[in-house]
């Protein structure tokens, strides 16, 4: 008796880029945001952080048609600009990303409202960072916001180490067109379903119509044994439908989103 098997491989995914709902920095010494609304400062000033700066960035995820299980990755992108020399040159060091633990608003933001919860990693500022984009993976935190584990109050950026006071970096804020902070979201890879039926002594294969999926066939599942099915399907109501003569021996079919990989 002839037998068939169904396999499905990952499809391509899409990306969406968000810009901030609000962002601001806070200068510890004056206990308020800095006078420049175009920049987000993060620096260390030593024990007690008397002159340090920290920044908050919040993105609106509430209207996204995206559940936590659909999120493939989330990356925070920041553009490094050269600090105003009046307040020091670019200083190397590590910036640490925290989940902000409480509500805030730019107009009333004060140092005491900065509430670093759990850390979500570090990224390095080097001498070569100026005028460059920096990208940080924040998938775990964004997924926790999407599934309701934590309320979304945004990212808090601060120096990983206050002493020695070496870090001094400025990022472009949401007021700088073309260089606003970005949250780049990709959808999780989705596995399409391949259906196989027998109708009128024919093998009928159906799958979601997309040029990015290639129907392949193998007699054994062995690496290197897969080959594209040459026959062209008919597109009906968003499905690709292909009728084949029944194979003379065991055959396996799969949908492959990357035919170059076995």
UniProtKB/TrEMBL annotation:
Keywords: Secreted, Signal. Residues 15-186 form the Carbohydrate-binding module family domain. Pfam families: CBM96 (PF24517). InterPro entries: CBM96. The keyword Repeat does not apply. It is found in: Secreted. GO terms for cellular component: extracellular region. The keyword DNA-binding does not apply. It comes from the Bacteria. Its main location: secreted. This is Carbohydrate-binding module family 96 domain-containing protein. It comes from Haloferula luteola.
